[in-house]
């Protein structure tokens, strides 16, 4: 029986978290690797959604809406992964003449999201923002390690491919992607039945004050 990426899940996940090159080589060669990579991204998005779920609890969102909100957040989170993967692949092809498969880049990036499985920890008061930053840097380093290991393009080309790919995504989000982002936020609010807060600093204020700060007049916020 052929061994799949699912069979070696523990080894691959731990290797990615430890930034080991062989883990990314495995994710690019074993059967079912693409499914596993995408599953990791969805679970990372779900973990982040649960971490931010305090807002849903404080707004007394119904259980059915709460579950739907979590799954929608995971799906919307996955779109960021898709755009980052595509933009990085384009940068590799256009600027570094790398004839890499877009699926290889997608698998490597998906596995690089392994540290984001701990995103539930962003719910910790006062530690949410630092943890989020650490996990983002950790994910980037994993992507860099995987790009270098799988595409064999060298550390600096891999670095600039990942960075420029991320920059392209940020530019698109702030230009032609604004309507798409607004639609995603509207869907999230609609499913939850309340106006959700995505900014971690705003969430920390909610934890400190006990109610969503958007519901508190500005003067009252200052007095508290």
UniProtKB/TrEMBL annotation:
Record keywords, A-Z: Membrane, Transmembrane, Transmembrane helix
Domain of life: Bacteria
Residues passing through the membrane, by range: 36-58, 70-96, 117-141, 153-172
Protein name: Yip1 domain-containing protein
């Amino acid at each position: 029986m052929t061994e799949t990426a699912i069979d070696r899940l523990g080894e691959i996940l731990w290797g990615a978290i430890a930034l080991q090159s062989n883990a990314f080589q495995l994710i690019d060669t074993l059967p079912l690797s693409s499914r596993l990579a995408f599953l990791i991204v969805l679970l990372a998005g779900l973990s982040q959604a649960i971490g931010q779920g305090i807002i849903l609890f404080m707004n007394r969102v119904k259980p059915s809406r709460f579950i739907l909100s979590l799954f929608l957040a995971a799906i919307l989170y996955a779109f960021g992964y898709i755009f980052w993967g595509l933009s990085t692949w384009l940068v590799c092809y256009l600027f570094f003449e790398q004839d890499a498969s877009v699926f290889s880049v997608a698998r490597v990036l998906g596995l690089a999201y392994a540290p984001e499985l701990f995103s539930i920890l962003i719910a910790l008061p006062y530690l949410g923002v630092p943890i989020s930053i650490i996990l983002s840097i950790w994910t980037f380093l994993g992507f860099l390690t995987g790009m270098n290991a799988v595409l064999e393009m060298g550390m600096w080309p891999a670095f600039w491919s990942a960075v420029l790919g991320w920059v392209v995504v940020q530019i698109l989000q702030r230009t032609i992607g604004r309507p798409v982002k607004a639609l995603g936020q509207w869907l999230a609010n609609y499913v939850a039945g309340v106006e959700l807060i995505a900014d971690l600093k705003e969430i920390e204020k909610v934890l400190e004050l006990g109610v969503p700060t958007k519901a508190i007049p500005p003067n009252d916020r200052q007095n508290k």
